[in-house]
Amino acid sequence: MWRLLSEELRLYRFLLLISWALGAAIFGLILVMTALLGDAKDRAEIPTIAAQLPLALLVASMVAGFIVTGTERSESRVRMLVMLPMSIRQIAAARVLLPTAMSLLGLLVAHASFAALLALRGAPFPLERHLKVDFIGLQLLVWVLVALVVREIIELQKARGRGAALVSTALLLGAVALVAWLELGPIQSIALGVAAIVALDAALAVFAFAMFCHRTDFTK
């Protein structure tokens, strides 16, 4: 399983690097346009805007994860994977861990860029600000995992009918409602918010893993 995950990360490393580069380039273009076209007040806000670079990197990582999961069916990747001398559980775990690892790598790069930007501004490195980066990055990971679960619900519906997918759909909608509440609702402690998002990410990963293990058709 770990070898498969390592090989897939190697295969998609350029996709991840290109996503980060494009995210940073678009963000840099916004800063340049602000400097050239903005008024004095806008230009004075450029250092504050620049501190949002980690968000661009996190979104880029999420987009890369969506691309990997979205191209799985068109590439018939599952059919090729089941031909390997591996169990279905190992394939299911690697399939969930790949976009998760890509998002976590993006989170590491986001933290590094945030620390560098704070150092350039001579600002302190408060833990709470880094926890906010974690909170945003782990929220974005939720949506990548939701895409995996949606894929499994579609496969379940095709194999066993719409009725068989109702419970899974209801559970997924509950998870989406929970993350929406965490995003929009009042959070008393950012650390508790991060812990809640981690738990939700883990639950969605296990859900996607279990549904893949119970598949009856691996042709797509």
Account of the 3D structure:
The protein has about 220 residues and is mostly helical. The protein has one domain (about 1-215). Helix content is about 80%, strand content about 0%. It has helices at about 1-10, 15-35, 40-45, 45-50, 55-70, 75-80, 90-120, 125-160, 165-185, 190-215. The chain is globular, with a radius of gyration of 20 Å.
Please write out the topology:
Blueprint: H1 2-11, H2 13-37, H3 40-44, H4 46-50, H5 53-70, H6 77-81, H7 88-121, H8 127-160, H9 166-184, H10 190-213
Oligomer: single chain
- pLDDT averaged residue by residue: 84
Contiguous uncertain segments of 5+ residues: none
Number of H/I helices: 10
Q: What class do helices, strands and sheet pairing give?
A: mainly alpha
Radius of gyration: 20 Å
Main sheet summary: none
Overall structural domain count:
1
Shape: globular
Helix content: over 70%
Key traits:
single chain; 220 residues; mainly alpha; 0% strand; globular
Quick description:
By secondary structure, the protein is mainly α. The chain has 10 helices and no strands.
